[in-house]
Design goal:
four-stranded mixed β-sheet; mainly beta; about 0% helix; Immunoglobulin-like; Jelly Rolls; 4 domains; about 450 residues
């Protein structure tokens, strides 16, 4: 047989001297195409990102086998497979047949494509001080197609944020915090293992020599001042009468954030703060407690009102120098009494007669800053009779210098202008330094 189709076979018998020739007899039958089978080499599992690979299959007829993707994240060209994602891939091997061989029964093989791993590289962080400026966070990954994000274990000490595509860490208080570099996965990549770096925020070196604090005493609060008048009377904070508390004000004007400063009688080392919790719980918009030391503001903790008619201590990780306590509060979310404990600082070599004279001289000098609050620009008007070394500095709440003016080089102009347009709304400090003596004003940007 050398082909397929219908075949007729005729039987003939010639005659002889005795017999006539026989009538011919025809018989027909069909020759069908030969069957064939495919042997498809087993496929092994892969990982997304693996290089393209070849596959193999043979037909029993010796005819070439073709391949196609039935489903799954892959493409095929000839016998070369390229992975396009993770999942299950099914490939079909087929042989269509020819004039002699029927089409083979297609054979499929499936294999799994696992998600690729991602590895983050994140260097150790150097310790910082409270007054240090915000700093950039940077990490790389073996997969650059997905972003690496950062998380702070304690945003009250260091907050992190992505600003215009750049991750920045902002220091808010002393303490230890973990900065976590994280990278989520997707349909192609596994989530990367988090990389954690510890960061210690240290207090700023004190400019004053201190005597050892051996005992603790109640520190006197001499005044209380609010950054905005919302109708709340805070004077009950100046006495110990639990029957005389700060009354709640239920007016829309009080539904805002206000900074209330409790001025200490003397600059002191604060060991602890005791707060009287009266009524109400406010886990949303809790009161924020800060220590103020000149231009340096340190976050101490939150007051959420979770206890009822009892004194609660605000834990401090370590004693902190302060000349005031600042309560940043929303509406009526406040403690009803505030007691501050610690030790008044003995300032060595800071009370000389010459220094006192300089301070008295400064008090006699007229200077002002307006408008305050301001929305864009601040005018600083100085006494035209000022002599000597005069500088103006604008600081943020963490003590970072934002602007500096050396007035002695502009002595003919008693009015200096500072631009606050690009600054965020909030509290700032304006320093006037005259011959080494400093006076400070609080400036509010809104």
């Amino acid at each position: 047989l050398n082909g397929t189709g219908a075949l007729v076979v005729r039987a003939l018998q010639a005659g002889n001297d005795t017999y006539h020739a026989a009538n011919p007899v025809d018989r027909s039958f069909t020759i069908k195409k030969a069957s064939q089978t495919i042997s498809f080499v087993e496929l092994t599992n892969k990982t997304y990102g693996d290089e393209s690979f070849s596959i193999a299959a043979n037909a029993s007829s010796g005819l070439p086998v073709s391949f196609s993707i039935v489903n799954g994240p892959a493409t095929i060209a000839g016998n070369m497979v390229t992975l396009t994602g993770a999942g299950t891939v099914t490939i079909e091997a087929a042989q269509a047949g020819n004039t002699l061989h029927a089409a083979a029964t297609a054979v499929t093989q499936s294999f799994s494509v696992g998600k690729a791993a991602q590895v983050i590289s994140f260097k150790e962080l150097e310790n910082k001080k409270v007054a240090d400026a915000a700093f950039a966070l940077a990490a790389t990954s073996s997969n650059a197609t997905l972003p690496v994000i950062f998380i702070s274990s304690n945003p009250e000490i260091v907050s992190v944020a992505n600003t215009n595509g750049k991750w920045m860490a902002t220091i808010l208080a002393t303490g230890q915090v973990d900065i976590v570099a994280s990278q989520a996965g997707n349909d192609k990549f596994l989530a990367a293992a988090d990389v954690v770096r510890s960061l210690t925020i240290q207090a700023n070196p004190s400019e004053v020599s201190l005597t050892p604090v051996l005992t603790e005493e109640r520190l006197k609060i001499v005044s209380v001042n609010a950054s905005k008048n919302t109708g709340v009377d805070y004077t009950p904070w100046l006495n110990d009468d639990l029957n005389n508390i700060v009354k709640k004000v239920w007016q829309p004007n009080n539904n805002k954030w206000v900074d209330v400063t409790l001025q200490l009688e003397h600059r002191s080392t604060v060991n602890r703060i005791s707060l009287y919790d009266f009524e109400g719980i406010f886990t949303v918009n809790p009161a924020e407690i800060y220590a103020v030391n000149g231009s340096e503001i340190t976050f101490l903790g939150l007051f959420k009102g979770e206890d009822y008619k009892k004194w609660v201590n605000l834990p401090l990780k370590e004693p902190i120098i302060a000349d005031a306590i600042l309560i940043r509060k929303y509406s009526n979310n406040i403690p009803q009494k505030i007691n501050v404990y610690g030790k008044v600082i003995e300032e060595i070599a800071a009370a000389s007669e010459s220094t006192k004279e300089k301070k008295n001289a400064l008090k006699s000098i007229s200077w002002s800053a307006y408008p305050n609050p301001t929305t864009d620009k601040l005018q600083v008007e100085l006494d035209p009779e000022l002599k000597g070394q005069v500088t103006i500095d604008l600081m943020n709440a963490t003590g970072h210098q934002l602007q500096h003016i050396d007035v002695k080089n502009n002595s003919t102009n008693s009015i200096q202008t500072l631009s606050l347009e690009k600054l965020q709304n909030g509290l700032y400090f304006l320093y006037l330094k005259v011959n080494g003596v400093i006076e400070v004003k609080k400036i509010y940007k809104q």
